[in-house]
Amino acid sequence: MEVFKFGGTSVGSVENMRTVMNLIADGNQKMVVLSAMSGTTNSLVEISDYLTKKNKESALALISALEKKYYNVVYDLYKTNATKDLGKRVLEERFDFIKSFTTGTFSEVGERAILAQGELISTALFTLLMQEEGYNALLLPALEFMKLDSDKMPDSRFIKMKLNEILSSGPRTDYYITQGFICRNELGEIDNLQRGGSDYSATLIGAAINSREVQIWTDIDGFHNNDPRFVENTSRVDVLSFNEAAELAYFGAKILHPQTVLPAKNANIPVRLKNTMNPPDPGTLITAESHGAGIKAVAAKDGITAIKIRSGRMLNAYGFMKNIFEIFEFFKTSVDMVTTSEVAVSVTIDNSKHLDEIVTELKEYGDVEVDKNQTIVCIVGNMIAEEKGFASKVFVALNNIPIRMISYGGSRHNISVLVSTNDKKETLVALSEKLLNI
């Protein structure tokens, strides 16, 4: 069995839903993972924000507008009145559930439950579409098998056991339709895998059922070697290793959720990125093996804060670094880049929620400098740590760019530089002209 995942744009209209149906309906058994229709999650977030602020009138107005949109989808999507009636029942159930939160108190648990409704609606409507067209399709609720553990990480053992139990006990089906993004936590509450988590759902499912391949369908032709929003004449990367793809996803390549690669890597299941609007294009294949040497691609991650701690107490002292990183651990703030010298250590973080508290604690150990509005630019390739002259090529390309930090040697697949976000575009263009397009 293969796993096909389609994002919000891919199921964002009646026409696109029919396109997806035609793509998957080839008679081969599949697990199909769907996101919410494009724009829905944003609307649900906005509704939740109004409810949190106790602005129930505005929340109800948004709910009404979203409900009207979906009733129009149901009217256009189905051919028979019988299926239209079934679609209307789906909407009535889901929107009555959302409206129930406009009375009484509203909590974070309610917010997560509301955010799940987009995927629950899209999968129910799509399953009805396939059934109306005569296909053997079954809706498989992700809330029955997708679960987080006490550390808020996917419980892979439970997912594998429960999903295979469900599949083996039910009737054989050609097309299983399930939700991406949503899950339950250890308390049994509705939760999620964070924005973009449908990709993650797909590889978790692929690993659980030992899928031949996981295909992630979106609106572009796979990984590009640079960000086409800032750089002209980018090109698709045909093949990446799991490690290379993970680096690019973590450091800003929006096509893939950063956690997506790990389940596929652990199970050695190939992942293919394809374009729903251009099915013949082969897209990008991600496998265990890297193909070709040299630089493959560049990605950039914004919203970075750099923190430097300077202290003479570091010199020949053991335990200093441990004390520093325990502060970040206490405030549950992950560190991206690290550079050190005899008397200073610099780190970057992408979550500044506890920045003030972290800085206060760090001042106990030395002088602290903070630089906000930074961007990590990651240059990814195959065995670049062993490629002669690679570092010099990067530094020559960035000769006119002020570089705040450099991370090189921690991975044989990337070198990362920290620049001001104001210099991001110039950095990406320089790397494209002097490293990628030569």
Summary, kept brief:
This protein is an alpha/beta fold. It has helices at 14-24, 40-52, 56-77, 81-99, 108-115, 117-132, 156-169, 197-208, 242-250, 261-267, 320-330, 355-362, 390-397, 424-436, and strands spanning 2-6, 30-34, 137-139, 175-179, 182-184, 190-192, 214-218, 239-241, 271-275, 284-287, 294-310, 338-340, 344-349, 367-382, 405-408, 414-420. It has two domains: 2-219, Carbamate kinase (3-Layer(aba) Sandwich), CATH 3.40.1160; 296-436, VC0802-like (2-Layer Sandwich).
Helix/strand structural class: alpha/beta
Q: Which radius of gyration do the C-alpha atoms yield? A: 24 Å
Question: Which range does the strand content fall in?
Answer: 15-25%
CATH class of the largest domain: Alpha Beta
Largest sheet: 8 strands, mixed
Q: Order of strands across the widest beta sheet?
A: 3-4-2-1-7-9-10-8
What is the arithmetic mean of pLDDT?
Answer: 92
Q: What would CATH call the architecture of the largest domain?
A: 3-Layer(aba) Sandwich
